[in-house]
Amino acid sequence: MIRRLLIVNRGEIALRVVRAARELGMCSIVAHSEADADSLAVQRADETVCIGPPQATKSYLNIETILQAAKDVAADAVHPGYGFLSESAEFARAVKAAGMMFVGPEAAIIERMGDKAMARQTAIEAEVPVVPGSPRAVNDLDEALNVAESVGFPRLIKAAAGGGGRGIRVAENAAALCEQLPMAQTEARTAFGDDRVYLERFIEHARHIEVQILGDGERAIHLFERECSLQRRRQKVFEECPSPALDDTTRESLCRSAVALAEHVGYFGAGTLEYLYDDITGEFFFIEMNTRIQVEHPITEAVTGVDLVREMLRLARGERLRFAQQDIQRRGWAVEMRINAEDPERGFFPSPGQVQRLVWPSGPGIRIDSGLYEGYRMPPFYDSLVAKLIVWDECRESALIRAGRALDEFILDGFATTAALHRRLVDDAEVRRGVVDTGFLERWLEAKPTPTPSDKEVVS
Amino acid sequence: MSQQDIQAPFPGVFYRRPSPDKPPFVEEGQQVEAGTIIGLIEVMKQFFELRADAAGIITAFQVEDETVVEAGQGITVLEVV
């Protein structure tokens, strides 16, 4: 049983968990930093507890302080939300050691699926396709050329010690590989002090498609996929459910592979398996797993009718998975637009400020997940997501039209947001046709810079 | 000689070091050129460099490393030479 749930997060997701907890009759307790004492989640919670100064390292990431707060309020479970400590095995372990439920999988599963190399190995064991690549670091050119045919060309040469897009080169063919490999090794040695490089298939037109799953430790089900190809600097901007790229056969095998992997590790709770989908060949490849609730979960809720956060809490309090796979049906189409406090007209510069006037869109098919209210002063310490506008309709075309209508109703005075960017995106001919890949948005922003009204110049 | 206040252009957290295990960008009393990085300001998980507008000497920091600053708050004083 869970009676007193400590929510260790902020913003819209803290509020989201408060709502689910209250609906299940749990006492919701929001742990907040000094900068979030006036947040909407704090106002809506049954109880609150302050866990320290504004800086996340001193509050939302401070395991010791959080555990003390949990003890002080006599919590019996902890929901980590997303970000912060949600994928910290150390935190999950510490919560359990302190005698509380951690709303998420066991620390060992977080560790196993959070490590890219281990997750890849686990996927191979579960017969889930991964991006074809060299099984280990290649030492020399002969070995690089002899790497299995299945990898094909073009290939990525990736520094073993690299990350976040650094230390990557592309070789179009064998000749280019001969030329690039020694340079990549030298580069890796100078940049990371480690000259080991791996080879991997380079997917030129990749979509980011992910599968939502729920598991109770024995059995797992999928709740179909989301497509999150519209990204800027590897951050998702706009998501939709389902993906416009998949036919029913591919969707079925993709979602089944996710269930196979989840059941292989005995997954518990809500999780998401991320895949790259090759738009040219129609193949999909597992890349990583997120062992927590995700920002874009509401589009899955809109299309399946399942409340994912409430299900997480039910599982955590000891209930078995309440659904069989055939109980999960898709209905219609949903899109999510992330409204960030960033100014698209000034290179997405952060724009914290105070909400002077706020009018949310409403009417059929509209859902807003946000911690904003009139008079709220946004702290500058955390990420810039301030609202999620989720729009459902019977098909993709009408969902995009409805999204445009919703954005037209939305008014926020006080600081710049990315809402205007979304307004232009939902009308874009290529977005309407769904022909996007993970590079689409950056190319689009480059080619179609925001029209800058002359009166904006005084701002900078 | 004139004194210039180097101010925070927006609210955030001010850092004197590129990372916690590195030495500060500049010390008090240090001579700087126009464009020298004085520190970083973090706002909504993005980091921005704070630079000196002119050559001179950094006389004193008005805020500590890793402190919360408001827009327009004085960070340090530059004595322009």
From TrEMBL, chain A:
Stretches assigned to the ATP-grasp domain: 122-317
SUPFAM superfamilies in the record: Glutathione synthetase ATP-binding domain-like, PreATP-grasp domain, Rudiment single hybrid motif
Principal EC category: ligase
Domain of life of the source: Bacteria
PROSITE patterns: ATP_GRASP, BC, CPSASE_2
Biotin carboxylation domain location: 1-446
Catalytic activity, EC: 6.3.4.14
Pfam families reported for this sequence: Biotin_carb_C (PF02785), Biotin_carb_N (PF00289), CPSase_L_D2 (PF02786)
InterPro entries in the cross-refs: ACC_Biotin_Carboxylase, ATP-grasp, BC-like_N, Biotin_carboxylation_dom, Biotin_COase_C, CPAse_ATP-bd, PreATP-grasp_dom_sf, Rudment_hybrid_motif
SMART domains xrefs: Biotin_carb_C
Catalytic activity: N(6)-biotinyl-L-lysyl-[protein] + hydrogencarbonate + ATP = N(6)-carboxybiotinyl-L-lysyl-[protein] + ADP + phosphate + H(+)
Keywords on record: ATP-binding, Ligase, Nucleotide-binding
Job of this protein: This protein is a component of the acetyl coenzyme A carboxylase complex; first, biotin carboxylase catalyzes the carboxylation of the carrier protein and then the transcarboxylase transfers the carboxyl group to form malonyl-CoA.
Protein name: biotin carboxylase
Source organism of the structure: Litchfieldella qijiaojingensis
Automatic annotation (TrEMBL), chain B:
Listed SUPFAM superfamilies: Single hybrid motif
Pathway: Lipid metabolism; fatty acid biosynthesis
Keyword RNA-binding tagged: no
InterPro entries: AcCoA_biotinCC (IPR001249), Biotin_lipoyl (IPR000089), Single_hybrid_motif (IPR011053)
Highest rank taxon of the organism: Bacteria
Record keywords: Biotin, Fatty acid biosynthesis, Fatty acid metabolism, Lipid biosynthesis, Lipid metabolism
All residue ranges annotated as the Lipoyl-binding domain in the record: 1-79
Region of interest called Disordered, as start-end residue ranges on this chain: 1-27
Annotated TM spans: none
One Pfam family from the record: Biotin_lipoyl
NCBIfam families named among the record's database cross-references: PRK07051.1 (NF005457)
Role of this protein: This protein is a component of the acetyl coenzyme A carboxylase complex; first, biotin carboxylase catalyzes the carboxylation of the carrier protein and then the transcarboxylase transfers the carboxyl group to form malonyl-CoA.
Protein name as catalogued: Biotin carboxyl carrier protein of acetyl-CoA carboxylase
Source organism per UniProt: Litchfieldella qijiaojingensis
Lineage: Bacteria, Pseudomonadati, Pseudomonadota, Gammaproteobacteria, Oceanospirillales
